[in-house]
Amino acid sequence: STWLAVNDIEEKATAYINSELIQQGTATVKVTGKEGDMYTLEIDYNGQKIPSYISKDGKKFFPQVMDVAGGKTAKNDTQNAKADSEPVADAVETKSDKPKVELFVMSHCPYGLQMEKGIIPAVKALGNKIDFKIKFNDYAMHGEKELKEQLSQYCIQKEQTDKYLTYLGCFTKDGDSGVEGCLGNAKIDKNKLDDCIAKTDKEFKVIENFKNNVGFKGQFAGFEIFKADNDKYSVGGSPTLVINGAQSNSGRDSKSLLKSICSAFNNPPKECSTVLSGDAPAPGFGAGAASSGGSGSGGGCGQ
């Protein structure tokens, strides 16, 4: 698809936001640039400037979860603005005895981190009742640090699987400055990890291609380890959740994610009644809930 003219995008986004997302007052929208296949926007509402994205053809709008008109949360329109207190579960049509849950993220994408923080308690509750894996998008929007972190996480999950969620839970809160502490905290065997990173990097030429500007998707570095799966499920941005082979539009809080995953069982186990938080974690690194509460389904990196 082609890029829609800037003034058309601004007009389209302004009309949509004012008619669908806010209760009172008006918002103005300004295109601030391009990122991947999207325009970056700045929405000015009640003196608040809110960064958002819209696809280049103007058909898909990616709001950040934002507090508008006294606690109404602007959400990704796929959620049909359900009440904040309800978990936004997305029922899976294809059932199985052991659901396969694949979450595609970029390690440093704020919204990918948000869903990782939300899904970890659900995955821990279900344990070996599901087949869970974090996989990475086939391009990275956050530079060399992201490529290196993804190589590291790929190796921990592959070779020191039982320690991965401990590491990931720590990394999503502490970020880059906490990596060494998180590796120690999860009791990761560093020699084994370094060997695996070197071997994997050699096989997929991740850093070499980055340095030589090879295999980029537009302006972003390629990351091809899970390329076949990205293609198979038509994965676009981060996060993309796939349950039993189908993309899920689940909310990003633990309660919604548990419910969405549990809808994929032929016979849901007792673990599915575990009581988890219905508050979406905040996007980005750190603990705490999203400022606007609710199940937090908006926002993503890439398309």
TrEMBL record:
* Listed SUPFAM superfamilies: Thioredoxin-like
* Gene3D superfamilies noted in UniProt: Glutaredoxin (3.40.30.10)
Top-level division of the source organism's lineage: Bacteria
Q: What is this protein called?
A: Thioredoxin-like fold domain-containing protein
**What species is this protein from?**
Candidatus Falkowbacteria bacterium GW2011_GWF2_39_8
